[in-house]
Design brief:
six-stranded parallel beta sheet, binds iron/sulfur cluster, 12% strand, alpha/beta, 356 residues, globular, three-stranded parallel beta sheet, single chain
């Protein structure tokens, strides 16, 4: 596709220096197939990662506290029409025990994640956030979907530091085809609310959604840059039998790694996880993720009786392992990638936070 590796190097330099003017180049890079050219792309992303976020691999301890969801996303096993899964909502005591477990492993960030649970009481979660801050002093990331501004504010005031809300795709047609009763405008408004409340904000996409093209993915990557997100999660679409997209092809892993690499090159200092989905496609590709620009791993501290029930997609990695083992396994992944686990809170390093 490129005349020589030198030509590819020039293109990468241009994309790095002037991403806003590089839409066509980004698209061409997403279509790379030649092994040598891919190596050049991944190693360029790896150098950008090293320069901006260093060699440490940050740890986020995940607690999936409710699998209830009032939505019908056509790609997600937690959609409300899926009657084949048993629903749960952890009690406050169960959440605090899971937080205790991850804190005992020296992890300094907890991610409290749920479906878009319509019965989630904002005050109840605010109480938990306060207790985690008071008892453990951890950084707290929330991921509970679209909520009113008031709830986001309540949780921010209670001490939550970060919020993850994946856009999944910025392509209007792809978005409309993957959702029922949900609109991209409300997603964008929630992201703007979170930014205005000075959360560290994360977003992200699924690679391989029905109708998605290199054009859509290139726009997604530029959207990350425009919004200057602190965290960006990129994973492959994995079809689930309990969804409308059950017969769709899974997302391509190579393409997912290319999106991670280009997101690193273009956003430079955002925190990018090697997502659990990358480890859940038969082979564990999280090490490849770490070598293509990612700098975060997320050991799962959801209690064993609930782990398998949080089934966004099938075949989810690490649901049988004890959480402590998970951390050891992450340590190995970091070492194989020539890196080390970083046990700091791993806050955003975007300049705007230096003045807080
Ligand atoms: S993606 Fe989120 S909002 Fe959509 S069905 Fe799954 S858990 Fe619910």
């Amino acid at each position: 596709m490129f005349n020589a590796v030198g030509g590819l190097q020039d293109t990468l330099n241009r994309v790095y220096e002037k991403p806003g003017e590089s839409f066509n180049e980004i698209k061409r890079l997403l279509l790379l197939e030649d092994e040598k050219e891919l190596e050049v792309l991944f190693s360029f992303a790896d150098k950008v990662r090293k320069k901006f976020v260093g060699e440490g691999v940050l740890l986020r301890g995940l607690v999936e506290f409710s699998n209830n969801c009032a939505n019908s996303c056509f790609y997600c096993g937690l959609n409300k029409q899926n009657s084949c899964i048993k629903r749960y909502r952890m009690t406050k005591d169960e959440i605090m025990r899971a937080v205790d477990d991850l804190s005992a492993m020296n992890i300094k960030t907890v991610v409290l994640q749920s479906g878009e649970d319509s019965e989630l009481e904002p005050l109840w979660l605010a109480g938990i956030i306060k207790e985690i801050k008071n008892n453990f002093g951890l950084a707290i990331t929330l991921s509970a979907g679209e909520k009113p501004h008031d709830a986001y504010k309540l949780w921010r005031d209670a001490g939550a530091d970060r919020y993850l809300l994946k856009i999944e795709t910025t392509d209007l047609q792809v978005y409309a085809a993957a959702h029922s009763g949900r609109f991209i405008e409300s997603r964008l408004k929630c992201l703007d609310d979170l930014i205005s409340l000075r959360y560290q904000v994360g977003s992200g996409v699924l690679v391989g959604l029905r109708g998605q093209t290199a054009d859509s993915l290139a726009r997604d990557i530029l959207f990350f840059k425009d919004k200057n997100f602190d965290m960006i999660g990129i994973g492959p679409f994995i079809p689930h039998t309990g969804t409308f997209f059950s017969n769709d092809k899974p997302g391509d892993i190579r393409l997912t790694l290319k999106v991670i690499a280009l997101t690193r090159i273009i956003t430079r200092d955002a925190h990018l996880p090697a997502t659990t989905a990358l480890g859940s496609v038969g082979t564990d590709y999280r090490i490849e993720g770490l070598k293509s620009g990612a700098n975060v791993l997320m050991p799962n501290f959801t209690p064993p009786q609930y782990k398998a029930l949080y089934e966004i997609y099938p075949g989810k990695a690490c649901i049988k392992e004890a959480s402590e083992k998970c951390v050891l396994c992450m340590d190995e992944k970091a070492k194989i990638s020539g890196r080390f686990l970083d046990y700091s809170a791993g806050h955003s390093i975007k300049k705007r936070y230096l003045f807080n």
